[in-house]
Design a protein that fits this description.
It is a single chain. With 202 residues, this protein is mainly alpha-helical. The protein has one domain: Lysozyme (Orthogonal Bundle). Helices cover 61% and strands 0% of the residues. It has nine helices and no strands. α2 runs parallel beside α5. The chain is globular, with a radius of gyration of 21 Å.
Length: 202
């Protein structure tokens, strides 16, 4: 093999390696396709001052913003809603269409978050309402009420999320690691966003 041919082969192999690496990087890009929908329904259900990016961060943790996502328990769409939860939300918002439609799925998820927010508003510290809301979106409100009870028994402030984290292993019938990781992931996703909701590649 001549030096020219050898050099050409090296170049081709190097280009092939770069090309095969490209999809890995591409997968780390977070779409902004649904940003306007998150803004719209955050404003509708939480008001214009609320940070809509929290719900995008939640959707990233739930489905990686994939409208076709479906969990092993049957949760569906971008916000990973169970059919029963969606029907409950739909009964209060009859303008919502099908669960598989990304807009309605996002709208229903944010409305459901609003219900949870209202339930926690008076029994948590203002700085931790969103953590309780997100935690109960994942595990259910009754689980976190049990966690609050354990926190009180241990003379911890049950209104603070760090108290819930501390007592989590002692709370019966709770896969606490999943919930705590879920809330942490959402907060980490939010921290990666710029003010316009664009997510850094880090």
């Amino acid at each position: 093999m001549t030096d020219v041919r050898r050099f050409a082969c090296v170049v081709i192999l190097a280009l092939a390696a770069c090309a095969s690496a490209t999809p890995v990087h591409a997968q780390s890009v977070v779409t902004d396709r649904y940003d306007e929908t998150f803004r719209k329904y955050s404003k509708r259900f939480f008001g214009p001052a609320f940070d809509w990016r929290l719900f995008k961060a939640q959707a990233m943790a739930e489905s990686n913003l994939d409208p076709q996502a479906k969990s092993w328990v049957g949760a569906r769409g971008i916000m990973q809603l169970m059919s029963s939860t969606y029907k409950e939300v739909q009964s209060k918002n009859p303008d919502l269409g099908e669960i598989n439609d990304p807009e309605w799925n996002i709208a229903a998820g944010i409305f459901y978050n609003r219900q949870l927010w209202r339930q926690w508003q008076n029994d948590t510290d203002d700085a931790h309402v969103s953590d309780f809301m997100l935690g109960s979106y994942n595990a259910g409100r009754s689980v976190l009420l049990r966690a609050q009870r354990v926190a009180r028994e241990r003379a911890l402030d049950h209104r603070f999320w760090p108290s819930i984290q501390a007592v989590a292993p002692a709370v019966p019938r709770w896969r606490y690691s999943e919930t705590l990781t879920y809330v942490d992931r959402i907060n980490a996703n939010l921290a990666r966003m710029d003010p316009k909701g664009k997510v850094s590649a880090k």
